[in-house]
Design brief:
- With about 290 residues, the chain is α/β, with parallel strands linked by helices.
- The protein is built from twelve helices and ten strands.
- The protein folds into two domains: about 240 residues, P-loop containing nucleotide triphosphate hydrolases (Rossmann fold); about 50 residues, no CATH class.
- It is about 40% helix and about 20% strand.
- The strands form two sheets. The protein has a six-stranded mixed sheet with strand order 6-7-8-3-9-10, with helices on both faces. It has a four-stranded antiparallel sheet with strand order 2-1-4-5, covered by helices on one side.
- A hairpin with a 2-residue loop joins strand 4 and strand 5.
- Helix 3 crosses helix 4, helix 3 runs parallel beside helix 5 and helix 4 packs across helix 5.
- The protein starts with a strand and ends with a helix.
- The chain binds adenosine-5'-triphosphate.
- The site of adenosine-5'-triphosphate (ATP) has 12 residues, from helix 1.
- Pfam families: ABC_tran.
Length: about 290
């Protein structure tokens, strides 16, 4: 399934312009949407499952115009699941299992099929042990996982997440990214928004930079991640790692042969390089 945006404009009911002539093809498996506060990230994500309808331009699904009647929206929301930034905007049932079963029940599946989907989604998010817990009595990070499990219970082709790591501690962040990575490897397309350029660079194959409702840049992480000037134009800090790698590559040209996404990747490669002692001896003797 491929979602694309063709000259999409969106204005909220009070007249606030939020998207201006957004044209995008969502083709890569892992896509990060970056932009400062008010850039239009949430508004764009809400268009992906039909929660918002463009006030101008078109959203296309495999090349065909999205349909906003009830059948069209039901079909779109089975294929594209949206996880809101605040889990409390999404969770409403008394227990975790009831909440996660809501989507599959609405699809009219029988009890056994619903139960299978709930078990699968909870296992995927590693929260099977929370199934009987009251949703209101969970921690923020746990509620976030439950909200994602609810989206996964629809077995979507595209999982769209608004700032999925906001409010998570570093370990929870890392665990969530590993889970999302596992889903991507299984073929689920992941599209998420974030303010964290390093995280976007580490996880995503493709970055989209939004600024004042417009797409300022869209490109492969490996290239766009190193373009500090474009990040600055979007009012963002560029990812640190590509800049560090560029500086280190001047000392170790072999680094250019690797696609290093994380600090851990860099440390591993640096540990395997000849030691700096050898390097400085070579410099002294030359
Ligand atoms: N419900 C609304 N009614 C009117 N204007 C809105 C509404 N929601 C958002 N906007 C406006 O639309 C623009 C884009 O907002 P949006 O929430 O999409 O940005 P964002 O990039 O997700 O921001 P943040 O990083 O702060 O979450 C902003 O100017 C905002 O004030």
């Amino acid at each position: 399934m491929k979602l694309s945006f063709d000259q999409v404009h969106y204005r909220y009911a009070d007249g606030s312009p939020a998207l201006e002539a957004v044209s995008l093809d969502l083709a890569a498996r892992r896509i990060a949407l970056l932009g400062c506060n008010g850039a239009g990230k949430t508004t764009l994500l809400l268009h992906m499952n039909g929660s918002l309808r463009p006030t101008g331009g078109r959203v296309r699904i495999d090349g065909a115009d999205a349909s906003y009647d009830s059948a069209g929206l039901t079909s779109l929301r089975q294929r594209v699941a949206l996880v809101l930034q605040d889990p409390d905007d999404q969770l409403f049932a008394a227990t975790v299992a009831e909440d996660v079963s809501f989507g599959p029940m609405n699809l009219g599946l029988d009890r056994a099929a619903v139960a299978a989907r709930v078990a699968e989604a909870l296992a995927e998010m590693d929260i099977a042990d929370l199934a009987r817990r009251a949703t209101h009595a969970l921690s923020f990070g746990q509620r976030k996982r439950v909200a994602i499990a609810g989206a996964l219970s629809m077995r979507p082709e595209i999982l769209v997440l608004d700032e999925p790591t906001a409010g998570l501690d570093p370990l929870a962040k890392r665990n969530l990214l590993a889970t999302l990575d596992g889903l991507a490897m299984r073929g689920v397309q992941i599209v998420f928004s974030t303010h964290d350029a390093d995280l976007a660079y580490a996880f995503a194959d493709h970055l989209v930079l939004l600024h004042r409702g417009r797409v300022l840049a869209s490109g492969a992480s490996a290239e766009l991640g190193g373009d500090a000037a474009t990040f600055a134009a979007a009012g963002l800090e560029a990812p640190y790692l590509p800049r560090l790698i560029a500086a280190l590559t001047a000392l170790h040209p072999g680094l250019a042969d690797h696609r290093l996404r994380t600090r851990e990747d860099l440390l591993e490669i640096l540990a395997a390089l000849p030691s700096s002692g050898t390097h400085s001896q070579r410099r002294r003797s030359s």
